[in-house]
Specification:
By secondary structure, the protein is mainly alpha-helical. Helix content is 29%, strand content 0%.
């Protein structure tokens, strides 16, 4: 799994839910976060700003 922007409050990969380490799941995946993080963060901020 590759993603750009981290979300410490609601992140499902490595913060709030930590699904990559969940013992109730029978699969394990590798992940890389922060790829083009600044750019992805700005895209998300702009998107949700426009929605408000």
């Amino acid at each position: 799994l590759v993603f750009g922007a981290f979300d410490p409050k609601r992140g499902a990969v490595c913060h709030a839910l930590s699904l990559t380490d969940a013992s109730f799941l029978n699969h394990r995946i590798g992940w890389v976060g922060g790829v083009l993080g600044r750019e992805c963060s700005e895209l998300l901020k702009d998107f949700f700003r426009a929605k408000r």
